[in-house]
Amino acid sequence: MALAHRTTTEDVEDFLTSRFVKRHRRSLGPPYGSRMLFLIDDLASPVPDTFGAQRPHQLLRQIVEYGGFFERSRFQFIHVEDTSTVLAGATDVAGTKTDMRLLRHFNILFQDEFSSEDKKHIFTQVVRGTWARSLPALHSCSEDIIEATVAAYERITAHLLPTPLKCHYTFTTRDISRALEVMLMADTSKLKTKADIARLWLHEMQRQFGDRLVSIEDRKWTERMLVKQISATLKLKDELADCVCSQIMFGDFAQMGSSKSYSEILASEEEMNEVLTRQGLIICYLPGVVHLPEQQ
């Protein structure tokens, strides 16, 4: 189970009851003869309440310490049997520390930051395996794409550091994974040249990293760095000379019908407004009133 900012104790309880089987009247657990590993990811995500407590953590502590939890409907204690719990995530995020009353029940292991070579090796295997089947002509670009991605990620994490006004400038390797995941969803029949792959890469990197930036200077620096990085890695000379990252757009919403493909949208501003209006994706704002376009 992955915790989020708005995860509540009710969410944790519902997750448990949906995954376990009812053994007795007041006990839950995996099927008889087996054990279950209960993995909690993003441990530090829940927002503390007024008193500084992260309530999902208190429910987890109760399960680990007392072997169960109190059902919220009938206030009966439900035993959780044959289950081991593993926690994953940072223990200190944005000044919020995980309660030691929960952590004291666990053996704590710390994972160092992966080296550049480790990141390249991990993500290269993912991209190479997919593009080898769907994009054999440009299969050799997979290693270059990963090299550019890791290099850009390391430059972003070194230059765009979190500050009190930019506390959300926290980037992880999960951002790399999300960018590559969407790239692998693209219609490979539309990727004919290295420049096409470079434009797809610029779009996804902008969505994962550039959209978080709140400063104009940070956005301009990121755009220049991304264009320079991918041009140097793929050895593109003039293909991206006049490229503006904010004007590159990929998606499937501009296509009509049931068969849609994730590809670059080449349309003028007027054509894009017409497409968005037809799809009902434009919201017109007036003071105090929100008007949705009429559906034809």
Write out key terms for the chains shown.
four-stranded mixed β-sheet; alpha+beta; 41% helix; Rossmann fold; 2 domains; 296 residues; Histone Acetyltransferase, Chain A
Describe the structure.
With 296 residues, this protein is of the alpha+beta class. The protein has 2 domains: 96 residues, 3-Layer(aba) Sandwich (Rossmann fold); 151 residues, Up-down Bundle (Histone Acetyltransferase, Chain A), CATH 1.20.920. It has 9 helices and 12 strands. The longest helix has 19 residues. It is elongated, with a radius of gyration of 24 Å.
What is the approximate shape? elongated
CATH architecture assignment name of the largest domain:
Up-down Bundle
Compressed to H and E, one letter per element, the order equals: HEEEHEEEEEHHHHHHEEHEE
Estimate the mean pLDDT confidence: 80
Cα gyration radius (Å) = 24 Å
DSSP, total strands: 12
Percent in strands: 5-15%
CATH topology of the largest domain, by name, is Histone Acetyltransferase, Chain A
Helix and strand composition category: alpha+beta
GO molecular function: dynein intermediate chain binding; dynein light intermediate chain binding
Protein name: Dynein heavy chain, related
Organism: Eimeria brunetti
InterPro entries: DHC, DNAH3_AAA_lid_1, P-loop_NTPase
